[in-house]
Amino acid sequence: FDGVGTRQFLKAIGEIARGYNQSSIPPIWCRAEMPIKQQDSNPNNSPIPPPSSSSALMTLQRKFIDIPPHQITKMMNKLINQKCSTFDVLVAKLWRSKLRAIKTNPDVPAQLAFEIETSCGKVVNGSFSEVVELIQDAKRGLASEFNAWVSGGCKAKDMKLSYVKIIVNDWTSIRFEDVDYGWGTAMSMILVEDVPLLPTCLFTKTPKLLNGVRSVTSCVKEEYMEEFINQLNNFDD
């Protein structure tokens, strides 16, 4: 269902591969805890079409960027009297760097999934603190919004793909690296399935940098990669 459950599942397979009779954490289903959502929007059970997209997004470039802890601390120090997580500042930095690099019209709506929508101008020209606050506001509303969606009281979000949209995943605390199939734990983890149609960023642990974060991004086209990296490395603004 989520990253934590996936890690637990893979860990159990690893234990079976290493000769365990059963996994160290037995599965607990609790299926009755999830309310049944009405499917009125698709009464005939017809296939739901995939999100619309553009072939222009096929040229997105993948880049591995290791962010050391002192740079994360520097970003956090920019926020006065504002508590935040490592995730908050990393996403804010990534989002702003990407939009500044591609020089999008400031009036164009920019989406960050999980469920944030604002104008490109607010992300590009606003203060770093304001961008972090946008992310924190969205996080605070996630639980109630999900419950409303399950109960049928909230419509599904727009699934249209666009170049200014970014899907972010954070694996830094899930510990996929601990999965052992019999030959030791992993040095690092990445997504095997590449989705070139969708601008994405995955945060993982760095293989050799304690408390650092590895950003695996596929969110800009090749011609904007140099400027994207320059923006990511600029900690003065």
Automatic annotation (TrEMBL):
A molecular-function term among this protein's GO annotations: acyltransferase activity
Keywords (A to Z) from UniProt: Acyltransferase, Transferase
Pfam name, any one: Transferase
Assigned protein family: Belongs to the plant acyltransferase family.
Protein name, per record: Acyl transferase 10-like
Gene: LOC120276220
